[in-house]
Hints:
single chain, alpha/beta
Amino acid sequence: MIVAIDGPAASGKGTIAKRVAALYGLHHLDTGLLYRAVAKAVLDAGYPPDDVAQATAAAIALDLTKFDENALKTPAITEASSVIAAIPQVREALLDYQRAFAIRPPGAVLDGRDVGTVIAPGADVKLFVAATPEVRAKRRVLELKARGEAADEREVLADLLRRDERDSRRTAAPLKAAPDAHLLDTTHLGIDAAFRAAVDIIEAVRTGRKRR
Ligand code: DC
């Protein structure tokens, strides 16, 4: 089974994806880490994130076997990854790896922005996870504080909105729900309820109670 989970930042898609993968014994790939790792390589080498040649070379050379998640979650990398993700050559360089990951037996859960539309358009189940920007900003603030970082809610909200806008407006594989994705709005759901709602949708699709 392949499960595609897309949505904007802090919608809950990452946590849902991890838990769905654990429940069904599937591989899990947080595709945002790929763009973050390219962003880190470019910034570490001293180039701006919109340097197409550097970003493309970094994407082609990327070691896809290990990611230091913690080092990839800094605000500077978060912002740069969104800029880098708009470069078509970068997306192209990361495409085959993601597609191969998706079809590796026994199947996989991938979360990101373009999984249901570009990476795995034939996925068995597609979820588009959403929540209001205000709720997502609150969640991001809690996450940042838990990591010991200072976080101002208004600044975090502005950053989120800027990133949403960039991720949705770009021409290369923009953030959008696939026509056959099931919308899961987590605005009023805690993570346990959001996970249960995701499993309900997956089970309904698997048993034919819902169209895929
Ligand atoms: O999911 P995330 O916040 O870690 O993703 C970081 C950035 O990477 C995000 O702003 C957009 C980009 N991204 C993308 O363009 N396509 C994906 N499938 C996943 C992430």
